[in-house]
Design a protein that fits this description.
homotetramer; 303 residues; alpha/beta; Spermidine Synthase, Chain: A, domain 2; Rossmann fold; 7-stranded mixed sheet; globular
Chain lengths: 303, 303, 303, 303
């Protein structure tokens, strides 16, 4: 070590750690819901940590957010009303708004302080999305919002933190909540969520989310991507009432992208669409072993 | 930090480091060609480092080796004579030998000491492959071997370290060498190599390997996988005289696997085959920017 | 490592590092003269780093400051006019003011921003000293101040950072400057300075300071203490025109302390006074090897 | 961090850690009694760790061992029979043997494997002491040995690890054991022991050892030194039946050293002798607060 100064140490497990040099610490503090750290690293750019877990890095946040948003949005033939749960930095919003036929996006995040901090320190993430006319911002528990809303959505996107002990996301990965999501979707509606690591060892949360969604939706399509700044392959799951992402071919996507004037993508493009859904054998074999998560038997992140 | 003792620090760049707890150090020493470290980590299992760069971890070496070997071997309709360059731990050999119609595999590694150490400390990698009747082991500079061999191979697999300064692999990633490889292949022969990281930032080595192969082979198919223990998406390139991996469908692969009695795979399976070749947009856009590598203008790993 | 989050890494050499957990970062920024970092560690309390070198920790700053100030102040029979060079956090000032017969302390620090930051974030160090009637604060290059002052002082205390490249202290450890110091002292005046590590390996700065002072002062008394938060034995040097610290016995110090109403000491007490000056044999043997430091042949900290 | 590879992390507390680059690991393994690690660091030289706590580094082991041995040996007017408890690397033995009037040193260490490993990997510590005619080596529990020996010693030196949970030293720092030590000493005998850190925070073990010895010996003289490679001021205690170390002046020591042909010291010399016993005020004030350690109420190291 010839370089000195501040490092952020992130633990994967107690015996596998990552040290990230901190050039500048923008913010360190606790909101009502979580512990927030925002800093700059020469290689990763700006980085956001919630409860000491990395959420997003400037260098590749587009990989995460394009992987989360576009498979669902392109699969839906006409996504006009979209709901985003979580997604505090505004990049999920940004990607949704790229589809110009979207008329309204409602974003529900429990942590107003976090959103304000992201607007202040991480404006590159939302890139203007918060001031888009089509955006509606609600600071509320998503569980309450989804239960009480009378609207029906075309697409619902869950962009939440992992369910750590006493964290704000514990009851947003349960069958009870997914039932409400189902009810809040139109009859051809789609739900997509980020669902944790799909690495060869720690993927039990992922497979349990998939299993739980299968109890609720007729069609469940797990897929994966790779997030460099996490150092991990990352799991997403698309749950659908009717539309199947695998029925789209490259030409369909190209046409939809053109019609909807989707621009500036850096990761997602038609050839990637189907390949997302090709899971590795170890994961395919283990998918059956997932447990159904409920309010009573919910998941707590163990790492 | 509540745990104390030995850690291995691997640097991605000076400001991004990984700390791996060392439960047991099996070996640390310098061979004629490189600096070798073999240790055990509770999570990764046994790990091999060459010149302070991770090569393989027990937890997921199968992902790397299945990604390297099977796309090429399944694409070839009848791979009987195979050449492996590098691949000191013997796991590439092991994967090749799973195809029972392979009659002979020649493995050429410059570093006999390394191979002996792997046989002693990492027998799980080769899993008996070194004593298979079909295996022939040659300790020699691969450049010399390929130049002088009079045999023609069906498939040649390059499983080398990155070309670090004064390392043994510098001149094994150049047009001059790829020309020799081309000559050593039968008329429907295939060449595949591991070609470094495909992360969103440091992929110039990868795109230059692809560009260089395009000067030599009529068909070049770059593909990628994700190696968890590297924390990186990883690039491979298949260069072919005739056969195209994209012409195989799932059914073809399933039949070939059955006919060749390929067993015990944990990562590769038919649905993954085509998806390997769907590169992310940032990489597709940059592929054109690669430089042709030659003996004179060769590549030196900068990290 | 089971604890995650921010750590500050301080390098002793490239192969010996210290990691200090950062509970709270109070300040990180560059003044006109140096890079300042102030944070809290659960064990050390508040800590001040200048140019990535530790200056003071709340847990034991009293050891450093009592070691620096009291040997000189007790040795002088009647210290009325005192000059402090550097000492931005105000703790040297605080210790000087404990001697109630001190009428005036002038503190000259080049870095006004640093002093303001210390007043804001580290008030425990000065503990009211900045608002003491006897204190006079001057923001100026000490070299200029000492050259131009027409006053004569009883005691001058140098509490500076080590002379790192392009740092503000490089020319404050040279014969030329010590000559000016000599001239600014009354005929029974004393000069004391902190002079770096006295560890068994890196003490060349210390022995060179001693050698240089011997060219200027008739009596030079090197002494040492141990600063826990530095993890190092630390060197000081008392240079005197007339008074000898070794001529004081415990009784003298006890009487002077009583007469001057010195209170609240936690480290220095009479039995320690003489023992400070008993250097270890390795240091005694090497003292002769110091080089005379001049403006031309000045010292640059190598670590 | 620009340097990569193996580091040893030593924890002072969970939030204060030290990273020591490992150039070469000589040995890592568990004996019947403790976990041993021996490696080389470019700056510290060879280093010995027992149960993940540093015991000795080549760069300054002489400071520790001279501080432990010579105050007692010079204080005794004629040390002929010496007993060393612990001291596995043989350096305490080495220092005792420098006094040529010593006729016999018995060293009792419970861990034969450790002693063999030190002889193999750390011969610089003993420097021939193990093959000195006057040395007698016994592998036995010191508690048993002292209880059963019929010999009386002039000086007994305790050079043990701290009493960590289930470690071999727990019952060698209790009143019951010190009583046996007292009985095994001649009527003018001296006992000296290393007694842990004297840093401003964690010195409760030290003050409790002192308090306990006061219940057994008529004269107890605590003293301290500074061990650079520990990064800590370090406590020792001399307990005496008759002789007082403070009655020796420089001249006495010089004469004794000459008469006994003591050579090659690098740390201890006459002026240091008395200064060892000048403790800092915080320690003097806390000495009264020590608890009497007994077999029942023994001390377990908390860090």
């Amino acid at each position: 070590m010839k370089e000195e100064g501040l490092y952020f140490f992130e633990l994967f497990t107690g015996n596998l750690v990552k040290g990230i040099k901190v050039d500048k610490l923008y913010y360190q503090g606790r909101t009502k819901y979580q512990f927030i750290q925002i800093f700059h690293n020469q290689f990763l750019g700006k980085v956001l940590f919630l409860d000491n877990k990395i959420q997003s890095a400037q260098i590749d946040e587009y990989i995460y957010h394009e992987s989360l948003v576009h498979p669902a949005l392109f699969t839906h033939p006409s996504p006009k009303e979209v709901l985003v749960i979580g997604g505090g930095e505004g990049a999920t919003l940004r990607e949704v708004l790229r589809h110009d036929l979207v008329l309204k996006v409602t974003m529900v995040d429990i942590d107003e302080e976090l959103v304000k901090l992201c607007q202040k320190y991480l404006p590159e993430w939302s890139d203007g999305a918060f001031s888009d006319q089509r955006t509606s911002l609600v600071f509320e528990d998503a569980r309450l919002f989804v239960k009480e809303t009378e609207k029906k959505f075309d697409v619902i996107i869950s962009d939440l933190t992992e369910p750590i002990k006493e964290g704000p996301s514990v009851y947003l990965f349960t069958k009870e909540f997914f039932d409400k999501i189902f009810q809040a979707l139109k009859e051809d509606g789609l739900f997509v969520l980020q669902a944790g690591s799909t690495d060869p060892f720690y993927h039990d949360f992922y497979i349990s989310c998939a299993k739980t969604l299968e109890k609720v939706f007729p069609l469940v399509r797990p897929y994966w991507s790779f997030i460099f700044s996490f150092g991990l392959p990352w799991g997403f799951i698309l749950a659908s009432k009717k539309e199947d992402p695998l029925r789209l071919d490259d030409e369909d996507i190209t046409q939809r992208a053109h019609k909807r004037k989707v621009k500036k993508l850096k990761f997602y493009h038609p050839p990637l669409h189907k390949s997302f859904f090709a899971l590795p054998l170890y994961l395919v074999n283990n998918l059956k072993k997932g447990k159904v998560l409920t309010d009573k038997e919910h998941y707590i992140w163990k790492l």
